[in-house]
Amino acid sequence: MNEVVDTAATLDKPTSTKQARHGKQPKPTKEEKAGSGKRPPIQACKQKCAYMYVGPNAPMEGLFSGNTYKDCLPEYYKEKFAKLPELEKLFIDVYSLPAVKLELAEQGTKMHSLYQYVETQIQEGVLKNGV
C-alpha cells in the first residue's frame, strides 16, 4: 500500500518545467557545446553555404526579401546581376544576418544606401526585359 520512493533518484530531476527552464540543470562545457552539431563556428565556415536576399521586394522579378538559398543562387539571377551588379550585394551569408539587419535599419550606412539605390533602380524598371 505505501510505495517506497528512491529520493536520491528524484533529487536530480527538476520538479517543474519552470525549474528546468531557469538553469537548474548543469551547464554544458565548451567541448559539449562545440560538439552539439548546431552550427559550425564562424571561423570554420569560410565558404558561404546559405544565402538570403535582404533587398526590396520585386515580385515580377522573383525577388522577395527573406528568401533563402542553400549552397548557391539560381542561375536566372546572373542575368539580373549583369543588369544591376549592386543587386548581388544584397544576397548575404545567413550567418551575417543580424549585423546586416542593423546596418539596413540605420540611415547613412553602406547597406542602407545600397538598399535604397537598388529599390530605386527596380522601380525605374532596370531589371525588366528589353530595358
Write up this protein:
This protein is mainly α and 131 residues long. It is 34% helix and 8% strand. It has helices at residues 7-11, 17-21, 30-34, 77-83, 97-105, 110-123, and strands at 50-53, 68-70, 91-93.
Features:
131 residues; mainly alpha; 3-stranded antiparallel beta sheet; globular
Set out the fold topology:
Elements: H1 7-11, H2 17-21, H3 30-34, E1 50-53, E2 68-70, H4 77-83, E3 91-93, H5 97-105, H6 110-123
Antiparallel strand pairs: 1-2, 1-3
Helix pairs in contact: 5-6
**What is the rounded Rg?**
24 Å
How far is the first residue's CA from the last residue's CA? 87 Å
Strand content: 5-15%
- Could you name the ranges where pLDDT drops below 50 across 5 or more consecutive residues? 5-11, 34-46
Count of helices? Answer: 6
Question: How many strands in all?
Answer: 3
What share of the residues lie within helices?
A: 25-40%
* Arithmetic mean pLDDT: 75
Shape: globular
**Main structural class:** mainly alpha
Largest sheet: 3 strands, antiparallel
Order of secondary-structure elements: HHHEEHEHH
Strand order of the largest sheet: 2-1-3
Summarize, please.
34% of the residues lie in helices and 8% in strands.
